[in-house]
Amino acid sequence: MEIRIAESFTAVPASDWNALVEDGNPFMRHEFFSALEDTGCIGKGTAWQPLLFLAYAPGLVAAIPAFVRGDSYGEYIFDWAWANAYAQAGVPYYPKLTVAAPFTPATGRRLLGNISHAVLTALISALIAESKRRGISGIHVLCETRDEQRLLSRHGFTPRLTHQYHWLNRSFHSFEDYLNSLKAHRRKEIKRERRKVAELGLKIKTLTGDAISEADMLAMYNFYVQTYARKWGSPYLNRDTFVALHRTMRSFLVLVLAFDGNKPVAGSMAFRAADRLYGRYWGALAFYPFLHFELCIYRLIEFAIEQKISLFEAGAQGEHKFARGFTAMPVLSSHRLFHPQGAAAIEDFLRRERHVTARAIHAYRAASPNKDEPEYVPELEER
Questions:
Q1: Which residues contact 226 (CB under 8 A, 6 or more apart)?
Q2: What's the pLDDT tens digit per position in 77-131?
Q3: Into how many domains does the chain fold?
Q4: Do 157 and 19 belong to one domain?
Q5: Separation of alpha carbons 29 and 18, rounded Å
Q6: Distance (Å, rounded) from C-alpha 311 to C-alpha 170?
Q7: Are 91 and 76 in a shared domain?
Q8: Residue 285's domain spans which residues?
Q9: What's this model's pTM, rounded to 2 decimal places?
Q10: What digits encode the pLDDT tens for the residues 16-38?
Q11: Domain of 261: which CATH number?
Q12: Is 251 a member of any domain?
């Protein structure tokens, strides 16, 4: 077995890379990384510098998509307080190494391919050696699976627990089934919101695959930019990225667009892979009451039910999702810091944070508007 390190996704043929990616994980696919790199969102001159760890035996059998980071924007597993603590102590926190899907808080495998014990040991050894050679402060594996967190814990990584709100398809046959799974006051509120949207007189379309035109994607880009403009932020993606995603990942895209006459005035964009749906972006040209919930939640729930999708992740944060029957779900990450005192302090913080977050997830589920919310049983989280 040979471990190689590459600094661009162009170094790996798309077919070889994608053979390592499991179904339901569109943001680890070569097309997604290439769309970001080809349009200047990651790569040379950006704060996301690819550093790919590749295992060959002799063909490509495993890979870890890592990035050298000069900040923490676009990660959604927040460590700004750690960076501030390091700065106050006069210790550099950046650069760091992050294993993640850029700008995308969606859970999925991060250790790609045939990860046997020997392969994982070799890849982790290469990650650590290269990080130390480059003066990197630590390695952070974000939005990973539970199995990956267990494996990394055996290699000196400290587990972290945060949470998001995900919609679980409880074998619903219709939107009415979903409503009937909620407590009465939430059913009434959702019906009221949908009536208010209907009164706007907009035409709403859900588009997938080849039904999505480049003009639809450019309209969606305009909505996306409007959202960032209202929040005084800078968008992570650019116009060319949306065009590239339409060209190479159209089969994974779901757009929900609202039209005033023939003019698109609002939209949401999601990715669908296997039995998973991931809500990503939303925007509108003006304020339309409750339209956000209609396009980003209710229409996508209808789509998930029709397509027999089992899990809908609508992105990070958002208490409004919990109020509409989304379940509080654990989001897992693993962290290995190289500064002895810094590592000890963060490990102690994470131990206490896991306990608090596990209790919070349990409390959210106990207060859920769902009639039959499953109880949360923590594992690593309470350690």
A1: 283, 284, 285
A2: 999 999 999 999 999 999 999 999 999 999 999 999 988 999 999 999 999 999 9
A3: 2
A4: yes
A5: 6
A6: 10
A7: yes
A8: 170-309
A9: 0.96
A10: 999 999 999 999 999 999 999 99
A11: 3.40.630.30
A12: yes
